[in-house]
Design brief:
The complex is a heterodimer of chains A (about 130) and B (about 270).
Chain A lengths: L7 E7 L22 E11 L6 E7 L5 E7 L3 H6 L4 H5 L5 E8 L6 E8 L5 E6 L5
Parallel strand pairs in A: 1-7, 4-6
Antiparallel strand pairs in A: 2-3, 2-5, 3-4, 5-6, 6-7
Chain B lengths: L11 E3 L29 E2 L9 E7 L2 E7 L28 H9 L1 H4 L18 E5 L2 E5 L8 E5 L16 E7 L2 E7 L19 E9 L2 E9 L8 E2 L3 E3 L30
Antiparallel strand pairs in B: 1-13, 2-5, 3-4, 5-6, 6-7, 8-9, 9-10, 10-11, 11-12, 11-13
Classes of the chains: A mainly beta (about 130), B mainly beta (about 270).
Amino acid sequence: MRHKSSVILVVFIAFLAAGPARAHHSPSAVFDMEKKFTMTGTLTKVDWFNPHIVVYLDAKKNDGSVENWKFESNPPSWFRRVALAREDFAKAIGQTVTVEGVPAKSGVLYGYLLKITFPDGNSLELVFKGPTN
Amino acid sequence: MTHRLVFVFAAALMFTGFAAADKKDSVATSKVPRVADGHPDLNGIWAYAIDLPPVTLKKEINGAVSTTDIDQRAAKPAQGPVAGARPSTPAPSYKPEFREKVKNLFDNESKTDEVFYCGKPGVPRIGPPRRIIQLPGEMVFLYEDVSGDPYRIIPTDGRTHRKGANPSYYGDSVAHWEEDTLVVDVTNFVENGWFGEGGYFHTDAMHVVERLWRNGENLVWQATVDDPKVLAAPWTIPPRLITPSNDPLEESPPCVEDDGHRLLNSDHHQQR
């Protein structure tokens, strides 16, 4: 699936967390759902895995050092059923993207992907609606 | 080319209502498609159900915003009775001495459930097949699952269960027709898995009977679980109604669960 180069914002409003085809932990077990943050960096990798796809981001800090972040999202089969494939993310590997997410409570450089905006202006977003368990 | 998102809605619906059990176990329809031997035609691709909670998709294209509610769950609230379904209950009844164990397993599911960690769901937890290939003397059930894509080859030629076979998550199956219902008898399970998401552990004595029949263009799947070592009575799962699909099976990506070591509480979803 290819997006045309016009601006397309696709927003997924999820009532609860992503998960595999069966039971899975709630995002509140891992992530601080109240601490939304935005980060810009270079998309370096996309793992199209179950139970979560994972996108990798190298974000440059003010001091010039680079932090290697990972963000997880819904499973591949969920994206497939909304006509999105790995290529819709992987097309931006090596390019600058902006990610909105919530961080892991443990403090590691890991987050839950809420929104990703690509260089062409297209974006994909999950908006939680209601309690996350 | 106009960008267009195509949504394939999970179309497996769970009905908690039921029709009174029909002695003949068949659907009252005169339009059941049949194969050459006269049995109902169960061939086909059946809709995928991802078991995620409902989602609303909000789409903005060139400033125009639209929202679409997406519900890909396999389990949905009852929409009405399903003809031919057996009486069912939402949950099994364990013997009193095991109820605390079931509750503890469920409360800590994100740590105790193998399926959370890419484990096989097994029968009956995997639910209905995604694709059925119906051959003389056997049925082939194909599945898509996070843990991998299992298959089952189920004899319908009258043979009995294999002797001396190794126990497995998907068990040993043989099937026969009762009127227009395919009845699959499954035994010889490993004890590791759960037969349902609510902490429903079982022993090697578990015995499952699946029933599949056509309901118009749709497929109905319903299972009964018995484990006399731990259950107070057999449990009949509410039936699932599955619509046909043009969505071909696709190899599931590898399952790599990496959140287990980051869990700071036991919050989890019950999705089915």
